[in-house]
Q: What sequence folds into this?
């Protein structure tokens, strides 16, 4: 038994956790076939932990799905596999390479793998008949995300219509769907980057090693430090050197930059984040720099 | 390089930072309302800027856009107007949620549009708010919109209200102007249910009384806006007396290790639950005792709002989603005839005989509109009894008959067990927000 709370107050992290667990249970109770989209990054790991808590001691009553870009960090995939094994959940992999081979999406050599995720994901949702897909998106990440509901309705093309969203009142979520439609569910909408890290610290959650400071050969591109890898060949004039870096987000290895940092524990990362003056996406995501509405436009097409 | 990290934590040691962010903070949700030019975006921008919640890359993007549009100032509204169409039109269409934190508290701002045609979005933002922040322009005084916003916040039982009298710099920081608006609003507020009201003179643009105390208004002795937001006491707003536990999900592992485990997952909506308590399960009326309360892998000694826990009962009574656990002598009465205030949220009007889906706590069913008693004019508070329909963004008192009994309380007693949504069964869209007056 834990200590009695004399003033019946919950810390803000406990409040956020309670809200997220409520959402997980609501979806599991009302949707026919939910799935948890899992990238292996910190947000989806926190999501998995929350799902674990929501149904304990029962197992998580839905599978998890990863969109394999073929360009994911190997360390992230290793962490993914350990979580899957520990929780005993079913893993569905939607591979972009397979989607290209099957003609589901077209690799014209110019489109980023990040964009090819959209068609691959939508196809996997349709093929598996998923009616709800949990995502680890947070409203503090981006201004278009800040507008999105916890239950984000998607039509039969997977599209988000930001001008015609369902009102979302109290904690009464409306999960009604028509044939072929699905819902994207964001249980950690109200969490900030700092909340996610605080929770990782509090829960002692295992996350991929690339979040911690390590030596890596990197080169500069577009103001960001990119990983030297055959998957992302350097262009003329770019030179790699070894630096002490860490990642703030986990994504496609060709688009995800790292930051110079000596933070090697979760506590040190929290200290760093607490005073950081650049957002995680601004610091490390090439895919959001294409235009002011890059995220909104991708989301309208079906991105998470 | 665009990626810069300051490592200067001069005021707090690393351990303190971690302690602060993981332990001490509590949460305040507030909804902002105000007319188009009341300076709401500027105020939110300033709160975010001064609490370091705006990052350099975001600010740079906004500065660049402002410049390319030919503005001679940085338009902070570009930070909050997240949608392409909002930026095109320069107006806020939908609720946006913003976050910032001080050492004591985390804040969630529901930034709601002020236009009358977006009343439903304001209702959306206010439904979860602990505090409502209404902005008025000191030059204009109270407008129809500020009154309407106060009415909506009061209808939604947002327990704390702040009226921020903005643009004080444009009225020479006049105490007289402030007093006049103060008086006008407090006399209007007597007609409403506003348990806690604070009226603060500010200049969002210049920062007077927002985070730091204004030197221009020595006659004002109240708190700054930020100080008030940080210290307003919200813990006592919850009902800790009447036990309400809507059953959300039945946890049945059916595994070797937990073969006989049967728990009821849910979020506490009221009261304090403890092992050993005598409880009743509604609507069946079966009684039992709480055998234990689980929070993940721990057993806890009590559960209270808004905790999400799993409750186990001593007896093998039949309990499923949609049921409610309450105390034996303090349970809500199951009702199929509901008297409620409804905010209507769609173009097609609400009409008598109309049938809709209803979701109340974890219970869903169908509802039929028996009668529209009156339409409330949210500007004058006049009750129009001749109208038998509610149009988009209108609020009125409605009688419903439901297919399943609702285990409800008056909304004034409990915002969770007193609220419901109405869903159009053909389109699946949420078309109404309901606040229960009484069930019978």
A:
């Amino acid at each position: 038994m834990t200590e009695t709370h004399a003033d019946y107050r919950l810390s803000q992290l406990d409040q956020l956790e309670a809200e997220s667990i409520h959402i997980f249970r609501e979806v599991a109770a009302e949707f026919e076939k939910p799935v948890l989209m899992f990238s292996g990054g910190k947000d989806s790991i926190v999501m998995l932990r929350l799902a674990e808590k929501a149904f304990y001691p029962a197992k998580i009553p839905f599978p998890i799905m990863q969109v394999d870009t073929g360009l994911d960090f190997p360390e992230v995939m290793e962490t993914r596999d350990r979580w899957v094994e520990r929780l005993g959940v079913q893993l569905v992999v939607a591979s972009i390479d397979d989607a290209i081979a099957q003609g589901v999406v077209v690799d014209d050599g110019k489109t980023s793998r990040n964009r090819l995720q959209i068609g691959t994901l939508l196809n996997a949702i349709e093929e598996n008949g998923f009616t709800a897909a949990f995502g680890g998106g947070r409203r503090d990440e981006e201004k278009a995300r800040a507008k999105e509901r916890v239950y984000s309705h998607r039509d039969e093309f997977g599209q988000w219509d930001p001008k015609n969203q369902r009102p979302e009142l109290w904690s009464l979520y409306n999960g009604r769907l028509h044939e072929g439609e699905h819902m994207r569910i964001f249980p950690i909408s109200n969490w900030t980057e700092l909340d996610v890290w605080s929770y990782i610290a509090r829960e002692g959650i295992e996350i991929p090693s690339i979040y911690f400071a390590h030596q890596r050969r990197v080169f500069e591109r577009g103001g960001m430090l990119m990983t030297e890898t055959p998957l992302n060949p350097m262009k003329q004039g770019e030179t790699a050197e070894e630096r002490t870096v860490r990642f703030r987000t986990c994504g496609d290895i060709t688009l995800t930059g790292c930051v110079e940092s000596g933070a090697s524990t979760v506590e040190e990362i929290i200290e760093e984040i607490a005073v950081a003056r650049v957002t995680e996406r601004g610091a490390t995501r090439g895919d959001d720099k294409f235009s002011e509405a890059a995220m909104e436009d991708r989301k309208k097409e079906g991105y998470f | 390089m665009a990626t810069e990290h300051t490592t200067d934590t001069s005021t707090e040691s690393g351990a303190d930072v971690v302690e602060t962010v993981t332990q001490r903070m509590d949460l305040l949700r507030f909804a902002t309302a105000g007319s188009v030019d009341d300076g709401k975006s500027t105020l939110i921008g300033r709160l975010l800027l001064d609490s370091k919640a705006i990052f350099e890359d975001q600010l740079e993007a906004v500065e660049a856009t402002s410049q390319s549009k030919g503005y001679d100032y940085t338009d902070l509204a570009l930070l909050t107007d997240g949608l392409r169409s909002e930026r095109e039109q320069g107006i806020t269409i939908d609720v946006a949620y913003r976050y910032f934190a001080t050492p004591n508290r985390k804040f969630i701002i529901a930034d709601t549009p002020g236009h009358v045609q977006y009343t439903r979005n304001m209702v959306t933002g206010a439904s979860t708010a602990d505090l409502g922040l209404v902005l008025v322009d000191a030059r204009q005084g109270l407008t129809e919109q500020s009154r309407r916003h106060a009415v909506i916040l009061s209808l939604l039982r947002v327990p704390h209200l702040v009226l921020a009298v903005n643009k004080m710099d444009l009225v020479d920081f006049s105490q007289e102007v402030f007093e006049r608006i103060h008086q006008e609003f407090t006399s209007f507020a007597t007609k409403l249910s506003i348990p806690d009201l604070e009226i603060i003179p500010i200049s969002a643009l210049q920062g007077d009384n927002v985070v730091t105390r204004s030197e221009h208004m020595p006659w004002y002795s109240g708190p700054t806006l930020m100080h008030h937001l940080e210290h307003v006491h919200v813990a006592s707003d919850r009902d800790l007396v009447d036990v309400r536990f809507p059953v959300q999900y039945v946890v049945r592992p059916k595994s070797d290790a937990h073969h006989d485990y049967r728990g009821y997952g849910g979020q506490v909506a009221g009261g304090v639950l403890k092992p050993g308590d005598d409880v009743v399960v509604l609507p069946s009326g079966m009684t039992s005792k709480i055998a234990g309360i689980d929070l993940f892998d721990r057993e806890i000694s009590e559960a209270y709002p808004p905790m999400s826990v799993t409750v186990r009962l001593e007896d093998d009574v039949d309990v499923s989603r949609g049921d409610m656990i309450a105390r034996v002598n303090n349970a809500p009465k199951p009702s199929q005839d509901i008297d409620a205030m409804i905010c209507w949220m769609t173009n097609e009007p609400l009409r008598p005989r109309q049938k809709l889906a209803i979701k109340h706590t974890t219970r869903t069913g169908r509802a039929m509109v028996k009668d529209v008693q009156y339409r409330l004019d949210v500007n004058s508070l006049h009750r129009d009894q001749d109208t038998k329909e509610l149009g988009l963004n209108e609020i009125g008192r409605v009688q419903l008959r439901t297919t399943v009994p609702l285990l409800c309380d008056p909304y004034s007693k409990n915002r969770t067990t007193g609220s419901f949504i109405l869903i159009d069964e053909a389109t699946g869209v949420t078309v109404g927000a309901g606040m229960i007056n009484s069930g019978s």
User: Anything to note?
Assistant: The longest strand of chain A covers residues 214-221. The mean pLDDT of chain A is 88.
